[in-house]
Nucleoside deaminase
Amino acid sequence: MHEQYMKIALEEAKKAFELGNLPIGCCIVLNGEVIARAHNLVDTNQSDLLHAELTAIRSCENLLFKNKRQATLYSTLEPCSMCAGAFVSASIGQLVYAADDNFVGSIALLKQNRYYDERLNVVTGICKEESQQLLNEYVELHKGRAHLSSKAT
């Protein structure tokens, strides 16, 4: 089940890559229906706020507000602290992500949040290899953000 939605997030990550952005994609699912999908546009729009997760959350925030803790967010990379904060604020019930972010990952921070603590439902590693390969290609092409590469120490 998770794989079909992560494939949608990967499609979005590929769009980001084609535009020259860090290849991160996201989709949000509620009751088996994709209610939002987005890709990273940070470099394209020169805005550090246009992360895929934040953009997706903003596009369906009314539905999330009415359906607290019922939606699942799928991301191709472990969310940063800004996106994790949005995840908590939007009362999303489950997070599924593909690849770990060895530098700015935020899952440990989410687990410390008093509202999520033991209720936090996180699934990792879904389509990890495909996501990591795309991230590695980006790092090689742009000679940067090496913490995203599976070759990083």
About this structure: The chain has a mean pLDDT of 88.
